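Following up on my earlier thread - several people asked me to post the actual chain instead of describing it. Fair enough. Here it is, all 453 residues.
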Amino acid sequence: MTVESVGPADVRTSEPPLAGGAVPLLGHGWKLARDPLAFMSRLRDHGDVVRLKLGPKTVYAPTTPELTGALALSPDYIIAGPLWESLEDLLGKKGVATANGPLHRRQRRTIQPAFRLAAIPAYAPIMEEEAHALTERWQPGQTIDCTSESFRVAVRIAARCLLRGDYMDERAERLCTALATVFRGMYRRMVVPLGPLYRLPLPANREFNRALADLHLLVDEIVAERRASGQKPDDLLTALLEAKDENGDPIGEQEIHDQVVAILTPGSETVASTIMWLLRVLAEHPEHADRVRDEVLAVTGGRPVAFEDVRKLTHTNNVVVEAMRLRPAVWILTRRAVTDTELGGYRIPAGADIIYSPYGIQRDPKSYERALEFDPDRWLPERAKAVPKHAMSPFSVGNRKCPSDHFSMAQLTLITAALATKYRFAQVPGSDPATRVGITLRPNRLLLTPVPR
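Reply from S.P.:
Thanks for posting it. Predicted structure:
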């Protein structure tokens, strides 16, 4: 199927099949909550598009890369639905992650210069410093909590590169703690959308509200400190503070707040989750860790790895891409139809929610030989061309493509190279590397000890 699979509704189209297993009140939400990755992956066995019930809502689930790619590129669908509704408490309605239409286009124009490919080298010293500081902080035989360490480096790189503030040092742990609680609560709200029940003064709801308030307070502190400093470094926060709206007036405080939240929190969460998976890869696939080390030494001649080396580290890059294929940080996405349309030959009514899983798409045996096997060499040029279009889209596509894709890939490749060059890794008692599902995917509790090479 092609992009033409998305178009105006036709009298010949019909409703897609309803997946089995729905129960009163919860619909399929109980299955999605109990084993979400398996549930979303198995939908492909029931057709190219499947109908689901999440609480009282009927949602539609495309299961092929052709249809999810067409969906992301079509103007008939906007950013909305259960995922984004659950994220609005965090991201607001005026940030680039959740806005649609002209507002979204203006916001992308504002932030894009900070993420363009030509701008990335300016962040090189910070990325290099943080990657090497991460390895220098660890001691042989030390037990590393990969969750806190991954969040710490992801937050520091994002804050120092894009917000240019050392004030994030003291706030990194506070951010990590709040994010863990907020994302856990938002996931519950997405899969079981029971609305008013989440406003009751229950312990879990109070904990969620406290963490959310702390996150928003943190962002207000960052913006206020920049304004008070009078400084205007060439960074994303300066661009936001000097941005104009459609009438030529400065953008409002709420939009600045929402933009900073949209840049700082989801970016830190997704990058940190990917770093956790890369650490697991280095521990569980020592043969590829050794290949990364050998590649780095061949490129650097033994000096510390630098940003300028990133484009030459092809196997290291392939390790990162394969880790993101098998364990995409963003494993589920939602959209909403703005008009009566059709998808894969099925009628989609205006206002309908669409849900789909990059995790399921990127593990489809129709797209990948030995789909569940970790194989970075599948991204060698001669093999990668066999992968169907949109079967690997970790940063999405079209006008909703993550603007920080080059920024993220550069730091992930650099960090992986620095880690594999200095250490081997072994899991320690108490480690639980199994997948924990929330708004993003991460290991339950990954504990490693570094062994110097």
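Residues 320 and 413 are 7 Å apart (CA to CA). That should answer part of your original question.
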